[in-house]
Amino acid sequence: MWLKSFDKCFSTIPAQKLSQKEINQFLTELATKRNVSPSTQNQALAALLFYFRFLKGETATNLDSVIRAKKKIHIPVVFSKNEVQSIFMHLEGAKLLVARLLYGTGMRLNECLCLRIIDIDFDRNEIFIHNGKGGKDRRTMIPRALVQPLKTQIDIVQKIHQQDLADGFGDVEISNALKLKYTNAPKELKWQWLFPQKNRWKNTTTGEQGRYHTDASIIERAVRRAILKAGIQKNACCHTFRHSFATHLLENGYDIRTIQELLGHSDVKTTMIYTHVLNKGPCGVNSPLDML
């Protein structure tokens, strides 16, 4: 696609005469006239470098004159504390617990739904998050308000698991390495999903049945409906709870490095975005109109 676009842009120049000069002009035009994103410009550059290096046998070295596309800073949508409470009022059961965990710990939705019972450590007051974004593991705290609801949820999972075992099933999906190391692990309670799906999946060929964790779309729809019922006019979703978690911690005086660790960000610059939505700086200034 990019080679066709490049060739079309310089259709008056014979292909054998196209050089690094045209690469610079093309990439600059993408940024200045077509307003592409940095990732799109980099994709075009990679395609052109591949073409020149491996097909034409030329190596582009001087790209300093290229005008780079500017990365846009997107300020995240954040709930107020009252809005969070209003949303919770329109949720119930496991959906409410998931939403409270998202806001109370800063987890991403898939990180929360992939939790297993073994990941909840009440003695150390920790939740262990496996294989988060970027394949990273991390720990976060258990909110005090969720200790009892989490214990209740584990009791519910235990009853479901006991019934599955009684029906001749009860195996949960785990990695092959764990299966080899712990033969009985798939049937053990501690490896069960904290939020199992309502119904067992069925393999019509083998007759095998089991449970996966709750699908993310179920929680997303429930939260979206709760936001509408709460009358909140924001372009918000489940991930907004994570943004609200970080912003409210900053407002409460916690240092940004601690929040960075809780969110699992590799670079503190990523976490710094939440300083833009604090009730300080331009948004915290009293307007002269209010002083009249």
What does this structure look like?
The model has no long low-confidence stretch (mean pLDDT 86). The strands form two sheets. The chain has a three-stranded antiparallel sheet. The chain has a two-stranded antiparallel sheet with strand order 4-5. Helix content is 45%, strand content 5%. The radius of gyration is 26 Å and the shape is extended. The chain is mainly α. The chain has a domain at 2-55. Strand 4 and strand 5 form a beta hairpin.
Mean pLDDT: 86
Helical stretch count? 12
Tertiary shape: extended
Strands across the major sheet, in which order?
A: 1-2-3
The amount of helix comes to 40-55%
* Strand residues, percent: under 5%
The arrangement of helices and strands along the chain is HHHHHHEEEHHEEHHHH
Point out poorly predicted stretches.
Answer: none
Secondary structure category: mainly alpha
| E-strand count | 5
Instruction: Sketch the major β-sheet.
Output: 3 strands, antiparallel
Radius of gyration: 26 Å
Distance between the termini: 59 Å
Give keywords:
single chain; 292 residues; mainly alpha
In short:
This protein is mainly α and 292 residues long. The chain contains 12 helices and 5 strands.
Give the helix/strand layout:
Elements: H1 2-9, H2 20-32, H3 38-55, H4 81-88, H5 93-105, H6 109-113, E1 120-121, E2 126-129, E3 138-141, H7 147-166, H8 176-181, E4 201-202, E5 209-210, H9 216-229, H10 239-251, H11 256-263, H12 268-271
Antiparallel strand pairs: 1-2, 2-3, 4-5
Helix pairs in contact: 2-3, 5-10
